[in-house]
Description:
The protein is an alpha/beta fold. Helices cover 41% and strands 12% of the residues. The chain has a seven-stranded parallel beta sheet, with helices on one face. The protein is globular, with a radius of gyration of 19 Å.
Amino acid sequence: MTFGEQNSMPQSFQLLDKAFDSGINFFDSAEMYPVPQRAETQGRSEEYLGRWIRSRNIQRDRLVIATKVCGPSGQMTWIRNGPESLDARNIAAALDHSLLRLQSDYIDLYQIHWPDRNVPMFGETEFDPSRTFSSVSFEEQLTALDKAIYAGKIRYIGLSNETPYGLMKFLRIAEGVSCNSRIVSVQNSYNLLCRNFDSGMTECCHHERVSLLAYSPLAMGILTGKYLSHDGGPTDARLNLYKGRYAEGESRYNLSNGIIRKATGLYITIAKKYGVHPVSLAIAFVLRHPCVASAVFGATKVWQLEEVLNGCTVELNREMVEEINEVHSAFPNPCP
């Protein structure tokens, strides 16, 4: 999500080379990326990924490529005027443009980035009925995606930033559309500071065999501890570099909030006590979740990627989990 903004094309290729050579084969993007989003750079993340695949002459079946279609926002007017909705026309147009940028005949996992209806998301926790608006039906969205599967343009369908109601509604309606259009994954935030997924989504995903693609496993870098230093962290760290330009990130992961700062400090203390890197603690916590199929993370530097890779080899013992849960009980989900 930083390729084309925070990372140049050569830097992006270096990161992709390192990831692929280290055994990573799942790469996730979105039509709106990179972030912070703007008209001049929209689509570059997909474009860089597609150029890398072509330049390295990698066999397509060695990769699992995922991307996302934007839900309605009204703010990104350069993407189909908002985009205005997630109707069949917008889904088809978004998919075709993503395929062109990725230079691929198909996308392995095509996801709805956020719902076309009023839901609490990106840090919100409560549903407000008064904000309900006329939205595109679940049936229309699933039918459009099913046609894309039948045409060979996508292999599987996923959701993102979704609720238990939305997931179960999509699954129920899919039964009457086609077996091809069944939802296989949900990409929601999940990390030490945000375990909202466990409140309702875990039960749904467990019984319906839907995988969690856990995004923001490091809570946008907060769980590394770098922002807790006296100088506020490196100037090129995302929350510093784009201060004032990244409203969702700054409001959701705001260390001026004393509870967030306290909880983060306690998790880092646990990591130090057991001799593991804070990144390893955060990654290992996410990967131990029974519904998690992958942790979706971003790295802007090779050494950051290496830290995450190291975290994949760490297993939390019973004492570590107990101490993590004690912190969670005292400061539950400060970054929802």
